[in-house]
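Structure first, sequence second, as always.
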């Protein structure tokens, strides 16, 4: 199936339709953006602040959910339009090649991985800003671009909708721009997220190619690890409760 799909995508870029994963990501992002817009008009936008990605809050306040929620927030009309256009134009091709389940695993793997890079690099690099806030699905979109470069390297796209260029060179140029801009101060739409998305997109695709018969499902692994952690935590609390009950019973006996 992959070979047949690749042959369809070997020429000039085309509009691939709206497969279910891409469709619901588009709907979710747009709905949250509209909700945030009206929340701003009603002076309720402070509620959305806890969904932005703040390296300081993730590490010091335990706001781990921000590694995922920041992907669904955007800073303006142009920001969400370009991100959603990229999600549709390139993400739909990847979903048609891999299927919806693997594509959604890939999307969140890249987006969350990009968020982890934002947190770490803002602490490790001298020009990082741990108190900054990052928003947008750009990290996941750059992961999709990397997947397209690896899956369809010779497919042509229109640079600025005018100049035909091969996908591998298109992504190479954008990656270079993101790398150079990462030396600037964090502006919210973090270049750290772009680089992280490219990195995790590469890791995902390479893992699939090196072990094609193994189902690579990192989010399910994370979910399983989280459930195991909750189980161990509940077990410890129960053991503390039993020890307390035994202590109270001994006091009554004496």
């Amino acid at each position: 199936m992959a070979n047949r799909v690749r042959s369809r995508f070997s020429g000039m870029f085309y509009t691939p339709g709206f497969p279910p994963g891409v469709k619901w990501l588009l709907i979710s992002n747009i709905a949250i953006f509209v909700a945030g817009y009206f929340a701003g008009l009603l002076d309720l936008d402070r509620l959305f602040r806890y969904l932005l990605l703040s390296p300081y809050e993730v590490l010091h306040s335990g706001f781990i959910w921000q590694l995922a929620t920041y992907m669904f927030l955007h800073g303006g009309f142009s920001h969400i339009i370009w991100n959603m256009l990229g999600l549709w134009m390139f993400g739909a091709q990847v979903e048609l090649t891999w299927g919806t389940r693997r594509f959604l695993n890939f999307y969140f793997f890249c987006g969350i991985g990009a968020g982890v890079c934002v947190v770490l690099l803002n602490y490790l690099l001298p020009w990082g800003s741990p108190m900054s806030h990052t928003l947008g699905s750009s990290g996941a979109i750059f992961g999709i671009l990397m997947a397209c470069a690896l899956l369809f390297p010779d497919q042509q796209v229109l640079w600025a909708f005018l100049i035909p260029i091969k996908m591998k060179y298109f992504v190479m140029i954008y990656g270079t721009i993101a790398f150079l801009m990462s030396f600037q101060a964090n502006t919210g739409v973090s270049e750290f997220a772009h680089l992280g998305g490219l990195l995790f997109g590469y890791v995902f695709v390479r893992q699939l190619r090196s072990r094609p018969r193994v189902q690579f499902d990192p989010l399910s692994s994370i979910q399983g690890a989280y459930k195991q952690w909750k189980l161990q935590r509940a077990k410890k609390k129960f053991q503390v409760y039993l020890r307390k009950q035994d202590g109270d019973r001994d006091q009554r006996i004496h």
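Margin note: DSSP finds ten helices and two strands in the chain.
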